[in-house]
Design brief:
The protein is mainly alpha-helical. It has helices at about 15-30, 40-45, 50-55, 60-75, 90-105, 105-120, 125-145, 150-175, 180-200, 205-215.
């Protein structure tokens, strides 16, 4: 009988190894406070040695944590990159489809990203999390055709983004119910409703809402 062949060992490239470590770190940071996660934990989760983790992240756990957050943030920001064609609410629906698909596929990274701004009090981690929110808001203003949003419109958009984040975290906690398509439609309706409330007090938002109503 011919003995089973042993799979050939393949050395990971620098980027592959770094990605492996970041994935392991995100999974841990998503479910435990950063101060409760050690480099030994990350090494064990990735199936490597502690010195190897230090080789890629000589700044230790803080550097690894920030890199993990940045990795999740970079991927999440791509969800909002939508062509400026077609009805604007349809564009928003497509962006939310990608957003929720990211949340579904990268639930650990998403949780770690949003927890980062409140759990770890450093200017860098807060800036990473807030950068995603600002990027999302800028995309929304662009789709709405607003170059200089006033304070009421800015508040409305940022409050809605916060609501989307909270709903997404609750969606993960509730075993991803309701279905993603239903959640998406509800979030779009929430956006229109929020604009409607603000429009009663702000002419700029009223103009935006009127444009959306006439969009085809």
């Amino acid at each position: 009988m011919t003995p089973s062949a042993t799979p050939a060992y393949r050395r990971l490239s620098v980027e592959e190894r770094r990605s492996q470590l970041l994935t392991a770190a995100l999974s841990l940071f998503a479910h435990r406070a950063p101060e409760e996660v050690s480099l030994d934990d990350v090494a064990e989760a990735a199936g490597v040695s502690r010195p190897l983790v230090y080789r890629y992240f000589p700044g230790g756990k803080q550097q690894l944590y920030e890199a993990a957050l940045r990795s999740a943030a970079d991927q999440l920001q791509l969800c909002f990159d939508e062509p400026r064609t077609g009805p604007r609410l349809t564009r928003l629906s497509r962006a939310l489809d990608r957003y929720l698909a990211f949340v579904d596929e990268h639930d650990a990274g998403f949780s770690a990203l949003l927890q980062g701004g409140s759990v770890v009090e450093t200017s860098r981690t807060t800036a990473i999390v807030d950068g995603v929110r600002r990027a999302a808001a800028d995309h929304i203003y662009s789709h709405l055709g607003v170059r200089t949003p006033g304070p009421r419109l800015r508040m409305t958009v940022r409050m809605w983004i916060t609501a989307v984040e909270a709903a997404s975290l609750m969606w993960l906690d509730d075993d991803k119910q309701p279905p993603a398509a239903e959640l998406r439609d509800w979030l779009v309706e929430q956006f229109v409703a929020a604009l409607g409330v603000t429009a009663g007090r702000d002419p700029q938002t009223a103009d935006v809402l009127a444009a959306l109503s006439g969009d085809v």
